[in-house]
Fold this sequence. Notes:
Elements: E1 3-6, H1 10-19, E2 26-29, H2 33-42, E3 58-61, E4 72-75, H3 82-87, E5 96-98, H4 111-118, E6 124-128, H5 133-137, E7 142-147, H6 151-161, E8 166-171, H7 174-196, H8 201-221, H9 226-229, H10 232-241, H11 248-257, H12 262-266, H13 274-289, H14 294-303, H15 308-316
Parallel strand pairs: 1-2, 1-4, 2-3, 4-5, 5-6, 7-8
Antiparallel strand pairs: 6-7
Helix pairs in contact: 7-8, 7-10, 7-11, 7-13, 7-14, 13-14, 14-15
Amino acid sequence: xxxxVIGGGAWGTALAQVAARGGxxxxxxxxxxxxxxxxxxxxxxxxxxxxxxLNPTIRATGELGELRDTEALLVVAPAQHVxxxxxxxxVGTTPLVLCAKGIEAGSRLLVGEVxxxxxxxxxxxxxxxxxxxxxxxxxxxxxVTLACEDEALRTRxxxxxxxxxFRTYGSADVVGAEIGGxxxxxxxxxxxxxxxxxxxxxxRSALIARGFAEMTxxxxxxxxxxxxxxxxxxLGDLVLTCSSTNSRNFSLGLGLGQGKRAAELMxxxxxxxxxxxxxxxxxxxxxxxxxxxxxxxxxxxxLEGAPVGQVIEALLSRPLREEKL
Length: 325
């Protein structure tokens, strides 16, 4: 199966490395000319994944049309750009493996719903889980969820991408895999705030647990399966991104917790903290679904400039209740 990768950032490059295992050819599309040059001439992505030598069978291109002859496309463009990027290429019936995590602003659609609108004939799968790009590219052990309603296609994709250090667990719950990846980005910002404000490990652990309850409530309201949310693409990804400064979203929250402004923190970033874009969309989607998400509300307040102390006080002064979803 010939693989194409749409998106030449750190995660797209890491997935190209996975797909090139054993010398298989992979075509990587990148918008940045310097990435194309770096990959093709030096077998590296010096802009987004410096220090990691890439398999020489990875070829980069700046022309989306060159991906037409591939047999599956890994879509790794940021969630807010997926619609535009897929509109630039004639996908047809080529399977799309969605690797972006988020909810589209305006439409409040999951990435899979966006892809279906743009490419209605393309079979869809979702790859999600606890993954830092530099570890995946370096061949460190990683496990992910690969969700696809078509069992035969799910098996083919799993067999093509899985390897000794990259383990895929299959699922038919595409919605659940998407929601876990989207919501955890927002919760990771909240955990970064806890760290930045010096609130301690007790507070972070409590926030992860109650944040997971929010994720589960919202996911099940949107038709997700509970076991998906407790798996790699839900709880697994949540634990990783809520625990490390390697997470862009956690790092953004860290700065907010230290009293810095969101605009200041995001101004010079080469990479996207997707949770900042997902948070306001998730808040509105939760209201539409009648789901209470106080941590998500708090993150939005901080992104909009509310003082950290005021937001924390509001969360801690909520009425006492029974512990349940």
